[in-house]
Amino acid sequence: MKEMTTVAQSLRHARHDFLNELQLINMYLDLGRQEEAQAIIRSHAEAAVHLSRLAGLKMPLTEEWLLLAKWQHPEFHFHVECLAHRAPVELDAAFTRLLELFVATALPQMDPYAEHECCVRLANEEESLMMEITLNGNWTEIEFPEVSGLYAVKECDSDSMKLTVRAQMEG
Predict the structure, then answer these.
(1) How confident is the prediction for the chain on average, in pLDDT?
(2) Residue 11 has pLDDT above 90, yes or no
(3) Is 162 exposed, middle or buried (0-12, 13-18, 19+ CB in 10 A)?
(4) C-alpha to C-alpha distance for 7 and 21, rounded to whole angstroms
(5) DSSP letter at 123?
(6) Which residues neighbour 4 within 8 Å (Cβ) at sequence distance 6 or greater?
(7) Cβ neighbours of residue 86 closer than 8 Å, sequence gap 6 or more
(8) Model confidence at 47, in pLDDT bands (50, 70, 90)?
(9) Are strands 160-168 and 76-82 parallel, antiparallel or unpaired?
(10) Looking at the whole model, is its pTM more than 0.90?
(11) Angle, alpha carbons 50-33-11 (nearest 5°)
(12) Which of 5, 9, 70, 158 sees the fewest Cβ atoms within 10 Å?
């Protein structure tokens, strides 16, 4: 099991990534490629909106896991989308446990020479929270452990997998 990333380490990673992105924007502007520079800025603005929505769900464990995922698990290229506005806060630890089990189960099966794009999308469906995890690659043989309180369905084809997790909200 990996050691937890400290706040200082997380901030150093974030600062490093931020400076890299600023350098890339500056390079595009120097080359007269304004559209590419603007695309990077729009991408970061959109990501900030999704992370703001994630914070609004009041699920601090899940939020922290998703915020640190790209540094805790660099084997995956995580992308987070949050369209949800409500969540079953009492299942915060269960969602975090599911994410940990997902990584622990997938990691030993990963091709070390392939890029693994992983999108985590949260949305509301009627009176439930849905977390959809998509991962490129062939995952037909892998089985993910169950987590109490969550209902998960895995769908695969030859080049990607989607794990859809639902949790009913009370009230």
Answers:
(1) 90
(2) no
(3) middle
(4) 21
(5) E
(6) 72
(7) 57, 124, 129, 169
(8) confident
(9) unpaired
(10) no
(11) 40
(12) 158
Three-state DSSP class for residue 2: coil
Residue closest to 149 by CA, chosen among 133, 163, 169: 169
How far, in whole angstroms, is CA 123 from its chain's centroid? 13
- Grouping H, G, I as helix, E, B as strand and the rest as coil, residue 146 is coil
Q: Judge contact between 136 and 63, C-beta under 8 A.
A: no
SS3 content of the chain, % helix, strand, coil (to 5): 45, 25, 30
Q: Which residues lie below 8 Å from residue 130, measured CB to CB, with a gap of 6+?
A: 84, 122, 123, 124, 164, 165, 166
Q: Judge residue 167's burial from the number of C-beta atoms within 10 Å of its C-beta, 0-12 exposed, 13-18 middle, 19 or more buried.
A: buried
Check whether 20 has a pLDDT greater than 50: yes
Token reading at 69: 């995922």
- CA distances from residue 106 to 3, 8, 25, 101, 143 in whole angstroms, order as listed: 18, 28, 34, 8, 9
> DSSP class of residue 85?
S
Confidence (pLDDT) at 1:
47
Q: In the predicted model, is pLDDT for residue 41 greater than 50? A: yes
Sign of CA dihedral 17, 22, 27, 29: positive
**For position 30, what pLDDT does the model report?**
93
Residue 42 pLDDT > 60? yes
